[in-house]
Amino acid sequence: IIANRIVPTTLELMDNETIRLIEAYRASGLPLEAAGCLLIDIDGSNTEVEKHTARVAEICQKCGGTVDVAKSAPESDTLWAGRRSIMGALASSSYTMITEDIVVPRTRLVDMVVKIKEIAQRYQIRIPTAGHAGDGNLHPCILCDDTDKAEMARVEQAIQEIFRTALSMGGTLSGEHGIGLLKRQFMPWEHSKETLDTMQSIKAALDPNNILNPGKIFQPEAV
């Protein structure tokens, strides 16, 4: 779609497990039997929307997809209400939910989703995945029980494998949620010591007294 110079307002990806959890939580008309789906929104003048919708449908069909165009504004609103309810749908289905925030090149999106499914199976945990396909941003959501130590050990291994896989595909650790406390230990996997030292130097120059978010990402001492 993007290679054809069409940039949708939104291009949202959901795998089958995510679709099923949303539909169980709030019936929205998403395709229960689909391995995954893209929820696509196109804006512009009536002529542009009609033209681009037809072209997007053609592209999706050429790629082997089944296309269903919303027939009315209420139908469209219902679909998007389902997508917006994703966090509630996933959280209500599990004692604990850990939402990750990786990015891979758009050309590797399918590869990454397949790898996440393999990782989930290997570590015997549930990882429904959704994301913003337009920029390669994926949110694997680990559904687990943080009171189960054995399961949480598997969760930690799975998360690390997801990070390593994303980086091996030319991706990054975070697309929009940031690094913070949870991911700072993985920064050396993505960045060289020289890069991290430069980041530390900039932080020290702008915040010599270490009063801005102290302890987040960089400690007062050397990296």
Description:
With 223 residues, this protein is an alpha+beta fold. It is 44% helix and 13% strand. It is built from 8 helices and 6 strands. It has helices at residues 16-25, 46-62, 73-84, 86-91, 109-123, 149-168, 187-190, 193-206, and strands spanning 10-15, 36-41, 96-99, 102-103, 129-132, 137-144. Strands 1, 2, 3, 4, 5 and 6 form a 6-stranded antiparallel β-sheet that branches. α5 (109-123) packs antiparallel against α6 (149-168). It is globular.
What structural class results from the helix and strand content? alpha+beta
What gross morphology would you assign? globular
Question: Helix count?
Answer: 8
Output the helix-strand order: EHEHHHEEHEEHHH
Rounded to an integer, what's the Rg over CA atoms? 20 Å
Cα distance spanning the termini = 42 Å
Task: Tell me the strand percentage band.
Answer: 5-15%
* Helical residues, percent: 40-55%
Mean pLDDT: 94
The count of β-strands is 6
Descriptive tags:
223 residues, 6-stranded antiparallel sheet, 8 helices
